[in-house]
Design brief:
It is globular and about 55 Å long. It is an alpha/beta fold and 432 residues long. The strands form 2 sheets. A 7-stranded mixed beta sheet has the order 9-8-7-6-10-11-12. The protein has a 5-stranded mixed beta sheet with strand order 1-2-4-3-5. 43% of the residues lie in helices and 16% in strands. β11, α9 and β12 form a beta-alpha-beta unit. The protein binds NADPH dihydro-nicotinamide-adenine-dinucleotide phosphate and 2-oxoglutaric acid. NADPH dihydro-nicotinamide-adenine-dinucleotide phosphate binds next to α7. Keywords: Oxidoreductase.
Length: 432
């Protein structure tokens, strides 16, 4: 059964979305060729001295995908299933998404094949520093700027930034984003992916005449992106009826409160092991435990996918009963499943637009680091809202005008910008 572990053909599947764009808009032949493969894929070995004195070597990758618009930009993932194929695909999506929201960046992504939940804090720090030493030659504020992704966070970015400074013999804060604020991280970055996704959902919902308090959400995943989205959506009045993590899901038709869930998840690690309601805590009355993937087939207004790629695929797309899908994860719907949803007229707010809040605020962090400024959180949030509302409106209006899905509209917007830049750089031979 296809799933997150199954990365075979992930890149071909992702890249197939380019074909539709090439048929629909004029893209110079040379630009088409340039867009089909990464600029650089680096494989590294990261040796780590474990606490028991043994040495383990973890494979890792950093991939840069088309740097025409600017330096490569994108997160670093620590996960046992990471592969070069996955990292390449994620870097492709980064290139598209940065262009969709008009950032001066190409795509980048990194990963280490490791289960970080099995490492001590010191082992995790050695791994993070070792990975930076391995890829330092291709990093830098004008070359490639890493950031957090699955299982990496501000603490990991802080270690990585410190290691890069040691190697550079100076302070280079703009070489990594998503750092803790004390090390030059931008205020607002931690919540930015979830906040951005909520802006996109709100904009779409208001155009559809849909009110938050009449809208139910089921959210797959309860990590950084999902939690902050859930918290802000709950504040806004949306009713969250289900959430899941890698081990299970919980459901309450009365609605779930994200903050107490997060407090308990921090303590118990698994949603299925929490206390749902007693004298001291209540995340909701009437909580039911579900199998993890049962969440995907709940009858809700919006299915929010905020975990990993390939979650909705040919074997389960028929079971999706949600009225619409919001993609906060990268690539959570395969291209086959996407076509099925489109045929059933289930709107999908696509990853390359809906999850751009994180990289947008990473860009603001880079700008602040380069100019020596520190912006207030309100300013960061206001700039994020303004950019996302403007770029999202362009995508939604294009979809309506050209009678295409939101994903196709977003891809056309992004690829058009990259292709124009490739041609303006003057290194294309005009063969058409
Ligand atoms: N962080 C960011 O700024 C950005 C993240 N993204 C994307 O958002 C997604 C989530 O990233 P992020 O929140 O940072 O990662 P985290 O590591 O913080 O959280 C991932 C969450 O997904 C859960 N999960 C993993 N597998 C499954 C599964 N099969 N079913 C249900 N839940 C599952 C994990 O469960 P458990 O808690 O049990 O481990 C965890 O709660 C990724 O696709 C990432 O690329 C996109 C843009 C920016
Ligand atoms: O903040 C960034 O630079 C990138 C975040 C990321 O990895 C993503 O958008 O998938």
């Amino acid at each position: 059964m296809p799933g997150q572990k199954d990365h075979a053909n992930l890149f071909d599947d992702a890249r197939s979305r380019l074909e539709e764009v090439f048929e629909a808009i004029h893209v110079h032949g040379d630009a088409r060729e340039r867009l089909k493969q990464p600029n650089l894929a680096m494989q590294v070995s990261v040796p780590v001295r474990m606490d028991d004195g043994s040495l383990r070597v973890f494979p890792g990758w950093r991939v840069q995908y088309n740097n025409t618009l600017g330096p490569a930009k994108g997160g670093i993932r620590f996960h046992p299933d990471v592969s070069q194929e996955e990292v390449t695909t994620l870097s492709f999506w980064m290139a598209v998404k940065c262009a969709v929201v008009d950032l001066p960046y190409g795509g980048g992504k990194g990963g280490v094949k490791v289960d970080p939940k099995r490492l001590s804090k010191l082992e995790l720090e050695r791994l993070s520093r070792g990975y930076v030493r391995a890829i330092a030659d291709i990093m830098g504020p004008d070359r490639d700027i890493p950031a957090p992704d699955v299982n990496t966070n501000p603490m990991v970015m802080g270690w990585m930034a410190d290691e890069f400074d040691h190697l550079a013999r100076g302070k280079v804060p703009a070489a990594i984003t998503g750092k803790p604020p004390a090390l030059g991280g931008s205020l607002g970055r931690v919540a930015a992916t979830g906040r951005g996704a909520l802006h996109v959902l709100d904009l779409w919902a208001s155009r559809e005449g849909r009110k938050p308090e009449e809208t139910t959400l089921a959210i797959q995943g309860f990590g950084n992106a999902a939690y902050h989205f859930a918290r802000l959506a709950h504040e806004r009045g949306y009713r969250i009826v289900a959430v899941s993590d890698s081990q299970g899901a919980i459901y309450s038709r009365d609605g779930l409160a994200p903050d107490p869930i997060m407090e308990q998840k921090t303590q118990h690690q698994r949603l299925h092991e929490m206390v749902y309601c007693d004298d001291s805590v209540c995340i909701a009355e009437n909580v039911e435990k579900l199998e993890r993937d049962e969440l995907l087939s709940l009858e809700v207004d919006i299915l929010v996918l905020a975990a990993l790629e390939n979650q909705v695929h040919e074997h389960n797309v028929d079971q999706v009963q949600a009225g619409a899908v919001l993609e906060i994860a990268n690539g959570p719907v395969t291209s086959y499943a996407d076509e099925q949803l489109e045929a059933r007229r289930v709107p999908v707010l696509p990853d390359v637009l809906a999850n751009t809040g994180g990289v947008i605020v990473s860009y603001y962090e880079w700008v602040q680091n380069r100019s020596g400024e520190r912006w207030a959180e309100e300013e960061v949030n206001a700039r994020l809202a303004e950019r996302l509302e403007y770029q999202s409106r362009l995508v939604l209006e294009r979809a309506e005008r050209e009678e295409i899905s939101y994903r196709k509209a977003a891809y056309r917007q992004g690829i058009e910008r990259i292709a124009d830049a490739i041609q303006l750089r003057g290194n294309c031979q005009d063969s058409e």
